[in-house]
Predict the 3D structure of the following.
Amino acid sequence: MTEVTPRINASYLQDFSLQTVRLVGKVTDLRGEEATIDAGGSVTVHLNRDAHISMGSAVEIVGKVQQDLSIKVFQATNWGNDIDFAAIDALIDVNHRCKEIFYADTEEGEMGMGGGIGGGMGGGLGGSIGY
């Protein structure tokens, strides 16, 4: 089964401790294998060797929220500089307020990301990724 990767911003971190999530934000600080992302609040991410992000760029992070509310990065995608963060925050809000649109029951009876809009492996608005 693929792991659920709900979209969140900084305000949802504590609700997803020890879970895999998607976070979109702007890189505000970059120090070796650690970066700070502005995603409706400051989020520390621990980069892997494959993460190629740059200062000031928008990035999508797929990773696991740690107990200290930082994120261990599994995948980082650079989205460039022309991103409407208000639209991203609106999507996140709708995603959490209207779960029945974005989530469907899985075989195990848990709530999992449904196909939704553009679902599937790592893409679209309701994507999931397997690890």
Remarks:
- The chain is about 15% helix and 40% strand.
- The longest strand covers residues 20-31.
